[in-house]
Amino acid sequence: MARLDGKVALISGAARGMGKAEAQLFAAEGAKVAVCDVRDDEGKAVAEAIGASAIYQHLDVTNEDEWAAAVAATTGAFGKLDVLVNNAGIGDGSPLAEMTLENYRRVTEVNQTGVFLGMRSAVAPMKDAGGGSILNISSIDGMIGMDLCTAYVASKWAVRGMTKTAARELGPFGIRVNSIHPGFIHTHIGAGDEPGSLEAVREIVDAHTEKLAPLGRTGKPEEIAKLALFLASDESSYSTGSEFVADGGLIAGYPPPGMA
Ligand SMILES: NC(=O)c1ccc[n+]([C@@H]2O[C@H](COP(=O)([O-])OP(=O)(O)OC[C@H]3O[C@@H](n4cnc5c(N)ncnc54)[C@H](O)[C@@H]3O)[C@@H](O)[C@H]2O)c1
Question: Which atom of ligand 1 sits closest to the CA of residue 191?
């Protein structure tokens, strides 16, 4: 028996990166999956490659009507909703003194409000299903700070906090809510769509993790997907309101003076 047999999952931001890896792994483990994103062509390709176990649904996580439509499409196609992965997110990168209010609000809207709307949309169908598992993708930036990322860090700490409140409120209905805190992972975040920008960002990130992470490398989307699989499945049946870090040891500590 596969680890997600009989489960139905909705994953936001699943056209690329970790969300895509989660959609592929969940389906391989027996789940029915709603691949949701704003990148329609890429998202449809992910769903089509998975086959009959997946649908694609356009979903801008900042839009509450689109959340209602995505949940309706998922339950319409597969009969229920057991697992929600609030994965969609965007980065930022400007000094505090230069960060525009518009940029701050946009990051907050996608990374924080999007998670709130997603969790709220999942409550009724998960109650109907007799329980469920919500995974909120925060970051190590939801546990520490990072230069040039005031809005991003604020949003990821908010996700960590909302996770705990939701876990308390929804536990009595059998709905578990946990947060995942990835370190640096090879995805598209932080890179533009222009040729060469993905490779340029990777080179900088790899140099950083090689030097600072105890495991000495950047993570792969599939490594986060495996953690998400555990939390989506009944194997994590006694975990809720908890934080799961996968960062190659990056935030475990720091070297003593003179040894960096
Ligand atoms: N890659 C990392 O190093 C890293 C580290 C920690 C946390 N994260 C978090 O992981 C999550 C996934 O990011 P990723 O690294 O796979 O990045 P990615 O850019 O490869 O994928 C993000 C996906 O989210 C989608 N998206 C963006 N805005 C959206 C919106 N408004 N509505 C719906 N979808 C939207 C994008 O189209 C894209 O498909 C994010 O929440 C990110 O903050 C990433």
Answer: 19
Ligand 1 pocket, residue 12 CB under 6 Å: yes
Q: Report the mean per-residue pLDDT for the chain.
A: 97
Helix (H) or strand (E) holding 86: strand 83-86
Return the domain boundaries, the chain.
Answer: 8-183+219-245
Q: Say yes or no: CB of residue 184 within 6 Å of ligand 1.
A: yes
Distance 248 CA to ligand 1 centre (A): 19
Task: Evaluate whether the domain defined by 8-183+219-245 bears CATH number 3.30.2320.30.
Answer: no
Supply the pTM of this predicted model.
0.98
CA distance 89 to 91: 7
The per-residue pLDDT for 68 is 98
Beta bridge partners of 133: 83, 176
Does ligand 1 come within 6 angstroms of the Cβ of 19? yes
- 38/75 Cα distance (integer angstroms): 20
CA distance 123 to 163: 13
pLDDT score at 259: 85
Write out the two tokens for 137: 């993708």
Distance from chain centroid for Cα 94: 23
